[in-house]
Design brief:
Belongs to the malic enzymes family. InterPro entries: Aminoacid_DH-like_N_sf, Malic_enzyme_CS, Malic_N_dom, Malic_N_dom_sf, Malic_NAD-bd, Malic_OxRdtase, NAD(P)-bd_dom_sf. This protein has about 575 residues and is α/β, with parallel strands linked by helices. The protein has four domains: about 90 residues, Hemocyanin, N-terminal domain; about 160 residues, Malic enzyme, N-terminal domain (Rossmann fold, 3-Layer(aba) Sandwich); about 180 residues, NAD(P)-binding Rossmann-like Domain (Rossmann fold), CATH 3.40.50; about 90 residues, 3-Layer(aba) Sandwich (Rossmann fold), CATH 3.40.50.10380. The chain has a seven-stranded mixed beta sheet, sandwiched between helices. A five-stranded parallel beta sheet has the order 5-7-6-8-9, with helices on both faces. Strands 1-4 form a two-stranded antiparallel sheet. Helix 10 packs across helix 13 and helix 15 crosses helix 16.
Length: about 575
Amino acid sequence: MAGRGEGNGAATMAGVATGGVEDAYGEDRATEDQPITPWAVCIASGHSLLRDPRHNKGLSFTEKERDAHYLRGLLPPVVLSQELQEKRLVQNVRQFQVPLQRYMALMDLQERNERLFYKLLIDNVEELLPVVYTPTVGEACQKYGSIFRRPQGLYISLKEKGRILELLRNWPEKSIQVIVVTDGERILGLGDLGCQGMGIPVGKLALYTALGGVRPSACLPITIDVGTNNEDLLKDEFYIGLRQKRATGQEYSDLLDEFMAAIKQNYGQKVLVQFEDFANHNAFTLLEKYRANNLVFNDDIQGTAAVVLAGLIAAQKFVSGTLADHTFLFFGAGEAGTGIAELVALEISNQSKVPVEDARKKIWLLDSKGLIVSSRKDSLQPFKKRYAHEHEPVKDLLDAVKVIKPTALIGSAGVGQSFTKEVIEATSSINERPIILALSNPTSQSECTAEQAYSWSKGRAIFGSGSPFDPVKYNDKLFVPAQANNAYIFPGFGLGVVISGAIRVKDEMILAAAEGLADQVTPEHVDKGLIYPPFSCIRKISANIAARVAAKAYDLGLASHLPRPKDLVKYAESCMYSPIYRSYR
């Protein structure tokens, strides 16, 4: 991310823009045709300019720039356009057959030439999203110690307890707007990866910039290392984290309290802290503990819920009725499943003007011990109890489908192939157009494949998945699977928080993001069987989501950037980071 390995000179180099405008970040932002004067860098050192990823243009430095900044002789004589550089890099990346090699090549590019990295990602988002994020980032985290080259982000461990504020001040960028933080305990569906979970915040923030337009220098990836219970990692000579069992209880709680207090002291109350891949027992606790007095967001709970709710809203364009007419069965009652369930209940409550308690009765959850029913209430975790309905115990998924008769089957348990042929056929026998969402990541943990969903439902399923699947041909009809990727939501949501200067995240803002995404599904998309718009227009999608989130923040009195812009969509677009090279005097 921006700021890695940069000294004060490089950080200052963005320097003095001539005639720039003040953007949502409260900074002077030059327009694209206005040159930048890198006064802060010693002009005798063109070599340092080439090593600065934020300002390096490689072979795109013009003849005048090479003379002005002592780059003559440090580069071959040819001058290439950014477009030609991008074309060459696309070809190079495609030569790698192994996804992890592609990932490493892109991370190396990010370290060399930041703007070219983001231009490449923006222009080829559908092809490269699975490389820089799920599913490839999961393998990258598993092997992070072996492929580690340069530090990315900030590492805070138990060894630094009592010094977290000092560590934050070591980060070279001072104007931070979005932080993504993990403790590495539940990385995707791969479990405890400890300190090597850093690949997740790094990847998420790359998408905040590429898809949501939040500038790289405003993003800070953080890993909180409290140890790991992964024995393989503890024995691995290349493991980069603390070699101890995970801290729990008061020790863990005190470290997180210090972290949140230091964030607010160092950056103020308008920096968005996104919790990422915390284990269930901590994820809900941390969100509830800090949301009242801090600007916090949990992507696994709230982001996943928003993108799934958007898909469910869009699916109503295929079937008659409203969400309140459906019966939902969730396979998985962890942070993702219960987070989705609660947001669906809130949306039903809003649409039908009924108490949320009544809306929850349309939603059933099944965990590892079976259907969540009232007779289990005493042994349930608090976040599950609100879905413990009156019913006889049911042990397995197939039996639950037969007795609950869901119109929508949603999987988030991380148990691969759990949506068997019998389960999908049973769901399809109940519904003309069954909604089947296999949300678990990575692909190996998906509840079923797209081909299985379409073939076992005889082409009638409205299907979405957490991992990408190729189009499926069934009975001479081509089905395009929809990927319920959180990347639809969190970049635009974060941008909306930033441009409004929101000081808190409320459920109404999450609902606004989901509704904003669903609104982007056009009749043309429906004709193709899509419940999400194509990722090729993700920046337009993000701008519209940002505008909806910002509008809700203003409506709720939570926005601090005043006055309110007249056209929030245009304002969001104007604030988005551009990867186009700047001109240097």
